[in-house]
Write a structure and sequence with these properties.
The structure holds 2 protein chains of 2 kinds.
Chain A lengths: L1 H27 L13 H8 L3 H12 L2 H28 L9 H21 L3 H19 L15 H21 L5 H23 L4 H25 L6 H46 L4
Helix pairs in contact in A: 1-3, 2-4, 3-4, 4-5, 5-6, 7-8, 7-9, 8-10, 9-10
Chain B lengths: L2 H29 L3 H6 L7
Classes of the chains: A mainly alpha, B mainly alpha.
Amino acid sequence: MPRLMLLAAVVLITAALLRRLWQRARNNGWGRRLGVTHPLPFAALLLFLVPLPIPVAAAVSLARGQLVPLVGNAIAYALFLAGALLVRRGLLRTVGLVGGRWPVKTMGSVLIGLATGMTAWLGVGHHPAIAVAFALVALLGCYLAYGFDLHPSGPMRAGVGEHTRATLVAADRSITAIEQASRDIRQPELSTRLRRIIGLAREILNRLEDDPRDLRRARKFLSVYVDGVRNVVEDYAKTHNRIIAPDLDERFRNALITVEDVFREQQQTLMESDVEQLDVKIEVLTQQLKREGIL
Amino acid sequence: MPERLRTVVGVLLILVAIGVASWQSLLVSCASSGAAVSIRDPVVTSG
């Protein structure tokens, strides 16, 4: 009878946790999966799913009156949850859905490492050195899967609206993707041209980041040209190694020339916009000085 | 290391470290004969 009750308790706790997790995933992640962004990818969901045996172990330890494993498992699971939530927040920030400057992904990963070590040490009873090894492997896994955000830079800076941040982050990702795809293109001339285009795109992005008021002028550039270039460059990088097609190479070269021109025009437009704004400010200042009889 | 490979390796390490530790913890807590259980059913031998 007591074993049946213990089994029932374990099943109930597991069911409650799974239900809670399902609701959270549906509200925060899977609901948006049909949209543009994936704020809770499988890799982030993993941190909520994999430690699920630990609360069950804690419940069993409680039922059996084992104090050390109970405390170890309970603290470890709390650390796991806190770490997973922080990593999730860091991932949401990567896609521009939340703000903040704290390195939450790094903090979350450290908590996950601590939780893993504590589980291995107090929950399982491993030697502390082995527990440290568990912790380091978990930390390395978090670093490789999610990356660390010790130096949040670029579009993450404070003071930029969420929508603006999301747009800038998406553009930054596209430029990074162009950069990665361009490494697979072996022709020196095309590579050089692509490097120039990437440089121009980054300059434009930095300018927009410094002064998001220009974003309205550059929205088409960000949403049409950068994404378009990304698609073309990625497809070309995939196909040109398999197929020898001089016509395709020529068309790609021509497309890159056009893109470079468009990017230069965009940069020029933004600079002219700065000049116009400066002109207006000078005019206002001149009028003010005239009114006050200084000029 | 390519982005995708890096993510896969990271996920595998997470599965290995956290998965092994948590399942071992569950198995240990279920398998170990706690004091309360062993005291309740003492084995009496004659002689």
